[in-house]
Specification:
alpha+beta, BirA Bifunctional Protein, domain 2, Rossmann fold, 3 domains, 8-stranded mixed beta sheet, 5-stranded mixed beta sheet, 16 strands
Length: about 450
Amino acid sequence: MSKPSLPQGTRDFNAATVQKRQYIFQTIRGVFELYGFQPLETPAMENLETLMGKYGEEGDKLIFKILNNGLDNPQKRAQIDEGFAKVVEGKNSSSITERALRYDLTIPFARYVAMNHGQLTYPFKRYQIQPVWRADRPQKGRYREFYQCDADVVGSESLLNEVDLLAIYVTAFKKLQLPVEIKINNRKILLGLAQVCGGEEKLIDLTIAIDKLDKIGWEKVKEELNNKDFSLAQQEVVERYLNITGTNTEKINALAILLGDNENGRKGMEELNYVLDYYVSTGMHENLVADFTLARGLNYYTGLIFEVKALDAQMGSIGGGGRYNDLTSLFGVPNIPGVGISFGVDRIYDVLEEKNLFPASVEQSTQVLFFNLGEAEAKVAYAQMGMLRDKKIACEMYPEKSKFDKQFKYAEKKGIPNIVIIGTDEVANKKCTIKHLATGKQTTVSFDELVNFQF
């Protein structure tokens, strides 16, 4: 029998890891709700047609398709088995899969809005924290199964939604004590650049090339632009665009000169200024950086776009989002504007771990261990333990009567800070001994006093 193993790109999580992940989830969830967002959950699987064609050609290749199975009809099941055999042989058969695991939370959310648009109260503000799956090549910070935390607003074109979503980022990462830089750009600015460089039809080629700048450098980007028929003069404009530096205000002023009177560029800069101006009085503007190299390859963004990077950490983006005004039209429901952000929880976890930013209390679940000193004593102790649990104090009892040393070691290995001892004498006197392991301090209290003891 072969050794048990995990599918590549997936992980088991022990108690300490789960507690740290829950700390992240609870922190972000609390911020979402602080800003008036309500929870939503969608199925792990979607109909294949819901997902395919929504993420571009490369994204479609990363969708995990689900084999049809469990059908009651023997004839249909035989056809599926035959189709699967063809796929194994390298022959495609669309008859064997009709569903797929969700690739992200945005498209399922758009599908939900399209199906329920007549019953929703607009603007509709939802957050969603669920796993997604991608058939990507596993590496550090990139897994085939991972969680996303999304917040979206649909049914409103107001830029105050962007202001709120960026504030959610700032607030959440401040609570996590993780210093970040939030890059912000506008697809209208990129569209304006494309128009200045020859036409709107060049937008996709341009954004794909710019999006690779950090990975391949300007010379390779220039080669790619050259292969896409950008003239030398147009490449020079792109280079000047990518070399814009300074404060946010200085960058926008330089961009205004470069793009001239281009209408889309002007509108994009106005929206950028609107959002940035909101944060000057709050101090949040220090986290926001106008970055015109930010392109984000997803084709559905139409306005402001965001990306979050952790400072002084070897990690890619840990969050991103933007405005996608016509996403629900993919499902036959046009004219519902939307904007959203996503937190990359697994990457956030890795950065917090790398920088040792998890609070020590996160891994501490059980606060009190009651020693087991015999059947009669255990029954009395169990009653006292129940009263502590009613007070929301997490506690447990060692399951067997054992030597003190063994029970102490159990508490130490689990990081339980307090011991309660109720032996024969304690039962007779209706008292107990409390020991704090870190200091060795012992306190004797009555059963009546135990329930209000400050552990």
